């Protein structure tokens, strides 16, 4: 079968591999689409400290059940269109015991610490399979990245009384915007890309700030009467956005960090105390976040085609990643079609 491997920094190859064996409790999926995400891009660029190379990338999955192993729950049916929860959990660490398997100490995410889904077929434990419930294959490939943004909003306990600033309007930031809007919050989107900000406004952001052309703090003060945002969600992973989040949040506000910063960040910690902030990390997503995204997609209001920048074949994966590196601001999602 055909698969995609990131061999080393800057090198992606289409390779031939044997079709996976089907074990007890597993199902075989024929892959329809898999999304390239920011972690895959960073792996390609040599900037992902978590990855083990060489690796088959991909954890944003749309597939079809084509074979069912022994001891699989009866709700998993042949021909069913599905997505997959791509995270593993040990069941024994503190996070798992606290019912937060998304933050398992020993998690291995598909496409990062273990081989992912960019192959014609994959075999996965049936417990990780999520029935598609009438969603299209392209919609299912968007569920996982959106769920990460949904989870961050849940971490912040966003309500309709909140002003929420989202720093970064890529796919995960867009997910956070959608979830916050659906909870009734007043959302401000910030990014350097005007096209991404236009989409954020279409999806319900009340205001937008182009930080390439405007001073973030000055514009935020204008919009909030110098109060700042009740919640700031950082979905970029850069030093400047980490620091901006602390500056932008109101006194007694909440800050949620999703992006992985690539370098140590020197915080002026006096503001942690003076503002009495709740500062949180947000990792991956929980099953309820997947369900919430799928409920949203079923509403039919998501501009799916605008979220998918390009669709390529496995043989075109190297060129697609090269193009993304050259113009990262122009890409929401690249899907690989098998």
TrEMBL record:
It comes from the Bacteria. Signal peptide: none annotated. Its cofactor is Zn(2+). Pfam families: ADH_N (PF08240), ADH_zinc_N (PF00107). Keywords: Metal-binding, Oxidoreductase, Zinc. Belongs to the zinc-containing alcohol dehydrogenase family. This is Zinc-binding alcohol dehydrogenase family protein. It comes from Sphingobacterium puteale. The lineage of its organism: Bacteria, Pseudomonadati, Bacteroidota, Sphingobacteriia, Sphingobacteriales.
């Amino acid at each position: 079968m055909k698969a995609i491997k990131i061999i080393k920094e800057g090198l992606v190859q289409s390779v031939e591999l044997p079709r996976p064996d089907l074990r007890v409790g597993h199902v075989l999926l024929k892959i329809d689409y898999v999304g390239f995400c920011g972690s895959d891009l960073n792996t390609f660029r040599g900037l992902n400290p978590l990855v083990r190379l060489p690796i088959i990338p991909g954890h944003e999955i749309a597939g079809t059940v084509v074979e069912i192993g022994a001891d699989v729950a009866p709700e998993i049916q042949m021909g069913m269109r599905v997505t997959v929860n791509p995270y593993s959990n040990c069941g024994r660490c503190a996070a798992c015991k606290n019912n937060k398997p998304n933050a398992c100490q020993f998690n291995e995410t598909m496409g990062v610490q273990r081989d992912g889904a960019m192959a014609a077929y994959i075999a996965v434990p049936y417990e990780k399979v999520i029935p598609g419930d009438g969603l299209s294959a392209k919609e299912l490939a968007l569920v996982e990245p959106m769920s990460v943004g949904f989870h961050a909003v849940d971490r912040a306990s966003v309500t309709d009384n909140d002003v929420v600033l989202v720093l970064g309007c890529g796919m995960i930031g867009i997910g956070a915007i959608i979830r916050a809007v659906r909870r009734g919050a007043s959302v401000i989107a910030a990014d350097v890309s005007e096209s991404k900000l236009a989409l954020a406004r279409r999806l319900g952001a009340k205001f937008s700030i182009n930080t390439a052309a405007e001073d973030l703090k000055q514009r935020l003060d204008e919009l909030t009467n110098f109060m700042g945002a009740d919640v700031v969600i950082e979905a970029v992973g850069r030093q400047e956005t980490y620091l901006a989040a602390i500056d932008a949040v109101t006194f007694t506000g909440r800050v949620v960090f999703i992006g992985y910063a690539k370098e140590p960040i020197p915080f002026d910690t006096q503001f942690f105390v003076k503002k009495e902030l709740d500062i949180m990390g947000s990792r991956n997503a929980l099953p309820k976040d997947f369900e919430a995204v799928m409920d949203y997609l079923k509403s039919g209001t998501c501009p799916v085609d605008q979220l998918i920048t390009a669709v390529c074949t496995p043989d075109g994966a190297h060129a697609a990643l090269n193009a993304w590196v050259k113009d990262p601001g122009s890409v929401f999602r690249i899907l690989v079609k098998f």
